[in-house]
Amino acid sequence: MNMPEKKIFVTQPSLPDLDEFIPYLKEIWNNKILTNNGPFHKMLEKELSEFLGVPYISLFANGTLALVTALQVLRISGEVITTPYSFVATSHSLWWNNIKPVFVDVEPESCNLDPEKIEIAITPKTTAIMPVHVYGNPCKVERIKEIADIYGLKVIYDAAHTFGAKYKEKSICNFGDLSILSFHATKVFNTMEGGAIICHDEATKKRIDYLKNFGFAGETIVMAPGINSKMNELQAAMGLLQLKYFVGNRDKRKKIANIYRKELSDIKGIKFMSELNDTEANYSYFPIFIEESVYGLNRDQLYNKLKENNINGRRYFYPLISEFSMYKGLDSASPLNLPVSTKIANEVICLPIYPDLHLDDVKKICSLIKDFNKLK
Ligand SMILES: *Cc1c(COP(=O)(O)O)cnc(C)c1O
């Protein structure tokens, strides 16, 4: 088996031709507006709300500050129910607001928060639910809304993975009270660093925009101790250019996902997610789950063997957020409370997937996984 000579990583940002970016830079240099809701910022908000089909969007410097701000917009406090199977920023946004995360287990099929385990975790202090649409796959949004409505809770979705993904023909970001996107370099749509909050009414959009600009609600009014988390004009220009390539790039990802599905389907002990009903995926990640007793190697052995062969997958999400020292002491962080999350965190590897990944390399990765299984 010939291994690729170059290191292949789980993702690589797609970049437009540098020449195409120059005219945007010239415009910024000409009008000398660098930030503070400049012309590119306004244009990107408009184009994104049309492209995604969402009513109101506010751009941010990154997704984490968008999460932190979203909790302030709705005045969330006390306890928030969330998932341990995510990137740490989900729980960190609660920590930064002095809110206690209450971890609830996920479903094995989708890796998303299990709605049937939410009610038992609700206490008088609970004010909101913060689920994550992991790998861009929608949570059980109708069921979560039903529970939230009964108990009077807000729902804030960490939708960092879902750019361009749809559920029942609508952007997944249309569900919940607020949804947060990330435009980080590693995400399917990137502005180098960047993020957004999606909301459903103009009054809320105004409050979001005050809070991301120190709380200024006018020249002389400060409505809260807001942060500075504005997206700048360079990021916004990058976003306008990147948006032109999103659909083409997504289609390239889809081709790669299809090869993985075909080539890996007959390897015993390797599982992957099938396309979900009513969902238009964005192919942001390609997680596989290794069942050691059948495949012959455990997850870390496969992960390391791939690495020796220049294939750098990532164990998204391992360790669970609930395993990190600042959360480990919480009652809800016990592995006994989180059996499904604990199991999948020990089985998962996300394989490389990005628009410029060669299809031959995808096939090589699949052959390696096949060969290791024979060697044991
Ligand atoms: C990337 C990511 C974030 C953080 O977004 P940044 O833009 O990097 O700050 C939050 N939550 C999830 C699930 C993510 O994957």
State the total count of DSSP E strands: 15
Biggest sheet strand order reads 2-10-9-6-5-3-4
Give the structural class. Answer: alpha/beta
**Amino-to-carboxy terminus distance:** 16 Å
Annotated CATH homologous superfamily of the largest domain: Type I PLP-dependent aspartate aminotransferase-like (Major domain)
Overall description:
By secondary structure, this protein is α/β, with parallel strands linked by helices. It has two domains: 18-243, Aspartate Aminotransferase, domain 2 (3-Layer(aba) Sandwich), CATH 3.40.640; 246-374, Aspartate Aminotransferase, domain 1 (Alpha-Beta Complex). It has 13 helices and 15 strands. The protein has helices spanning 18-31, 39-52, 63-73, 89-95, 141-151, 202-211, 233-243, 246-264, 292-295, 299-308, 325-328, 339-345, 359-375, and strands at residues 8-9, 56-60, 79-82, 100-103, 126-130, 154-158, 166-167, 170-171, 178-182, 195-199, 270-272, 279-280, 286-290, 311-312, 348-351. Strands 2-10-9-6-5-3-4 form a seven-stranded mixed beta sheet, with helices on both faces. A three-stranded antiparallel beta sheet has the order 8-7-12, with no helix packed on it. Helix 4 links the parallel strand 3 and strand 4. The chain binds pyridoxal-5'-phosphate. The site of pyridoxal-5'-phosphate (PLP) has 14 residues, from helix 3 and helix 4.
